[in-house]
Amino acid sequence: MSLVHRLHPRAAFVAALLLLVGLLTAPTSASARDPGRSVPPPASTLHRPLPAAPAATVAARPKPPAAPAAPTATRFRTTATVTWKAPASPDTAITGYAVTAYRDGKKTRSVSFDASTTSRKVSGLTAKGSYTFTVAAKNVAGTGPASPRSKAAKLLALPGAPTVIAVTADTASALLSWTPGPDGGSPILGYRITPYVAGMPQAAQTFGPATTNTVTGLVPTTAYTFTVAARTAAGTGPESALSSAVTANVSPTLLFDAPTEATLGVAYTATLNVTHGVPPFIWSVASGTLPPGLILNPTTNGISGVPTAPGQYPVVIRVVDAAARSGTRLIVMTVNKTPILNFPPPPLAEVDAIYSDLLTVVGGTAPFTWGMADGILPPGLTLDPATGLISGRPTTVGTFPATVQITDANGVTATKQIRLVVQPKSVVTLTASTAATTFGTSVHFAAVIGPGQADGTVTLIEQQPNGVETRLGTFPVALNRSEFDLKLPAFGLNAFRVQYDGVSPLAEAVSNEVVIEVSAVPGQVLINQFAQSGINGLKDQFVSVINTTALDLPIAGFRIEYPGGGTILVPGSARALPPRHAFLFTSPGYSLFNIQPDLVVSGLGQGGLRLLAPDSAHTVVDAAGSTVGYAEGTPLPAFGSPPFVPHAWNRLGVAGVPQDTNDNVADFRLVATVFGPINGVPSALGTPSPQNSLGTYQQNAAVQSTLLDPVVAQGSPPNRVRVDGTPGSLIIRRTLTNRSSAPITQARIRITSLSQENGAPLPGASSPAVHAHMRVVNPVNATSSITISTGQTLLVRNLSMDAPATSPPGGGLGTTLTIPLELGGLRPGGEVHIALSFAIDTPGTFWIAYDVDAIGGGVVPTVAGSGKAAKKAKKATSARQRALDARRLAESRKLSLITGTVR
């Protein structure tokens, strides 16, 4: 018998205290921190730097970027502009690009650029020849493959010269209009106007792409001419011919303050005004045409007539004064068709529901005035005379015929008959398929809306027993009815109603209330691990309960009871517990500092615990302990006296699923950080490692476990290495791959079964009567460089146990080992190579089972598509993907259970 076996309980307590002091004062290793801890770990924990490995031993080298798509290119003279999209570079950021030019198919030069932009100019080309280009991206791993070649670079030219069509001077400015010349193959970005005095250019002024602009800063009584030049990406083109000469503050300034819009068939009159210049004035059309039907009087400065053709008419008007000075101005006249009301019939209205319908007009000249030519609108509705909006809340059921009238700016009117129907207020009736159900079971709801027409959606609203209201979903209404199935998310008496939001007609209504009793099913929440004393005495207590359902489970309102009448209530502020997550209760003396509690309570008693749901029946969903009423099936053995060493009752699990046979002795094992019985109760070497709601959770579906060397049998090196000695040792090496769509930020291994004295049985089979006794131990080195059969050398992380496990003596059931990950976590598709070290105290048949606990990760990406063929392919692909996922998960779990014989 070992020394620890022979320790008196009080001496064992002292030894455990000394061990705790040593743990608290010793430097904290990465394995001593739980990845679920809410406070930031010191730099020496999960992401501590690992010993540098030779370049040849890097496990997964970053890859160069992918090839970009074919770039586009334009060329002006001897400079080309090449544009591309950044390609994928999943391993590391793009650091630069290499652009290669080909003249008439032959490579001429390659230029490197940084990654700040994906559009670059390549100079030094020849004026002749056809140029194409490729682009290759770079990162720290090197240069990726080149893109396909671009199409031949489009040749650009400078824009052509505009043509000035109108210029009129004011006191110290001039208004110019022009028509653009050819753009040279590139959009015009703006214009440059240059004034000339006596043939000498003055300071140029720049403008945007509009073709009418005002030049300022002119000197009164000075004669000016002007040129206009266009600007594109290729540069500024040639100047236009000189405009007509104008003299600031002397030449006539042509004004046009009349409306530029007329109505077809309606008389139009406009007066042309002028300032400066010497009367009398002569008016004429310099270019373009007035709308058919309109004429310009050359002496009375008036445009008048009846337009006969709709459309837009640009026209340049010239005025000449008695001193032969002139001014010209571009006017764009529009002739609108007469107004027509052709809007659709107004939508159905409902009593006391918001109503809004905007009437529209085609043709006519704004502004418009709306009104009622005949009849009335339903009481509660009004027509806005400026906008044509009918709005309000109707108050009376009925049919209301009326005639709407529109009048445009020229006094032209149009009318249209309408009929507004107002139906009675909607009434919503909600029914449910049952008045009582169990948590996680679907309930069928039906909502019927009447008596009028109903179209839109209904939203199901739940009022939980604690008074909190939650919107559970929105569902479509078809033919005045909406039906849907839902799993109810809360325990106890839940009240439900729906809110109807109509779209045809607009309407709002709330249904009657339906009350449904939601009861718990035993086993939906299980006691996963607990201890009712520890190294800090009788107040060093905890219990971790786990959600076994596939739904977010409202843990608020659950109660824990212990012998003697003690009760702990989870407060209403507690957040819902996600699937496979746990909720951790602790007492004030709780000593496992690296796992943070969700709720600190005054105490958890002695002799057992039971968990009650907040339903009307107060269903006992689980119980575990040595006291009658606080146990299931065979009670757990009672301690001779409260143990004061790190220990816990640990629920067994198989492939990530907690075992629940309704028998405590079958479902639980006592684990401790020392060998041998704990105060008269047999124990297995292991670790108290409870889980909390924000901590890690089992995620074997996202993390695939494979052999380190897939070519070699799992019982052969380097996948399994047996080292002789006293005791002997066994090293198991695996590769873990993130198969999900998001990074895994933290991860650890959790031992769920091990061939050891009083340990967990062989999962899924009967345990051999005689088997090996093993324990997890810490490795000598944090990493190893392992060469596999392909010749590749991999960096393997040799995992160490998390506290409170120590080596010696080691760990077993419930022991966790943190997996060091690089900064940023394990990316999708990323791999990490690990090794577990075991001491062999007794040779023989052995088994080892572990789960991967992880934070982060996401779903496995699925194939998207459209159309019947694509949907059919997607359905087939999805089925194949599900089958593949299931097979990979089975393989992963198979490799998470290791069996064999050590001699």
UniProtKB/TrEMBL annotation:
Protein's UniProt name: Putative Ig domain-containing protein
Gene Ontology terms, MF aspect: calcium ion binding; hydrolase activity, acting on glycosyl bonds
Matches recorded under InterPro entries: Cadherin-like_sf, FN3_dom, FN3_sf, Ig-like_fold, Striated_Muscle_Regulatory
One Pfam family of this chain: fn3
Taxonomic superkingdom: Bacteria
Signal peptide range: 1-32
Provenance organism: Micromonospora matsumotoense
This protein's UniProt keywords: Carbohydrate metabolism, Glycosidase, Hydrolase, Polysaccharide degradation, Repeat, Signal
Residue intervals of the Fibronectin type-III domain: 64-157, 158-250
GO cellular component: membrane
Record region (Disordered): 29-74
Classification via SMART domains: FN3
GO biological process, one term: polysaccharide catabolic process
